[in-house]
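// run 5 | inverse folding | seed 20
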């Protein structure tokens, strides 16, 4: 059973010129720190405080942009300190309205494998694939066991960043069961669009083709970013994932991959989505039970 009362250090408040306030809740990533960041930034958003321009929650911190002509930075910090004490502590009654989403992934696919083989000199172990390396250093006997562990529990989107629409996802399991891998020794200059990667304790889907340093495990047939907004799930915004979304990365075979790709190209693809009420406290008390309920709701 996970602890519900991980003691976080005192929050650190910093000014970035006149327009930004940065708040660090912890130097280490944890679900407790992320839930606290989400609670404070969510409450600030609900207040619709005049002068707040943008609110950017992150893994264990957050950044606020403000208009100093309408709101003095010190007044904002005073409000944030109040929120830290009023909503920042986990409350058993607090629930988060969010989504759980099925995200199919073809692991050990030919496209990311071709890419990773081109950059073996950038890797810690040039003699094995990224999946084989990750399985070995995490104590799995086979790559299949690693893939099964990734698919066994959902991930929560803790922040978006690096490029538009890239979701940093932290698996919803106790810390001792977290899968962790280092990034490449030297970054690649190429990564396929929709590649499923892993770095540190975070899983990502690369929204666009470009440079990258995460270990390459597979590829998603459906996009997380659609600049043309042609797919139905992207009509309201160009990036699909949102902070606090819960994503289940489901291993699929090549036949399902090709089928989903045909739907994407026809403009008919929809993600499987369920709206859920998520209790951080209930999850921290019994993560496996909450995860079972979430997956049952997703596939009912």
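// decoded
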């Amino acid at each position: 059973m996970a602890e519900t009362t991980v003691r976080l250090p005192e929050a650190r408040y910093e000014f970035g010129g006149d327009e930004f306030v940065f708040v660090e809740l912890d130097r280490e990533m944890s679900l407790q720190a992320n839930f606290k960041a989400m609670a404070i930034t969510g409450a600030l958003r609900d207040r619709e405080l005049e002068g707040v321009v943008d609110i950017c929650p992150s893994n264990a911190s957050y950044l606020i942009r403000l208009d100093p002509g309408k709101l003095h930075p010190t007044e904002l910090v005073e409000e944030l300190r109040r929120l830290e004490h009023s909503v920042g502590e986990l409350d058993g009654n607090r629930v988060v309205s969010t989504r759980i989403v099925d995200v199919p992934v073809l692991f050990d696919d030919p496209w990311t494998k071709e890419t990773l083989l081109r950059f073996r000199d950038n890797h810690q172990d040039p003699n094995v694939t990224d999946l084989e390396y990750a399985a070995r250093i995490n104590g799995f006997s086979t790559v299949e066991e690693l893939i099964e562990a990734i698919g066994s529990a959902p991930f929560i989107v803790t922040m978006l960043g690096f490029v538009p629409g890239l979701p940093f996802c932290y698996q919803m399991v106790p810390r001792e069961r977290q899968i962790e891998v280092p990034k490449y020794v030297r970054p690649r200059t190429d990564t396929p669009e929709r590649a499923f990667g892993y770095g540190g304790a975070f899983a990502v889907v690369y929204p666009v083709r470009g440079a990258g340093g995460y270990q390459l495990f597979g590829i998603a047939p459906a996009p997380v970013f659609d600049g043309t907004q042609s797919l139905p799930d992207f009509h309201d915004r160009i990036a699909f994932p949102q902070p606090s979304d819960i994503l289940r990365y489901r291993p699929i075979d090549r036949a399902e991959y090709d089928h989903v790709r045909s739907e994407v190209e026809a403009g008919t693809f929809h993600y499987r989505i369920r709206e859920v009420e998520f209790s951080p406290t209930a999850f921290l008390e019994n993560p496996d039970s909450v995860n079972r309920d979430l997956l049952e709701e997703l596939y009912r």
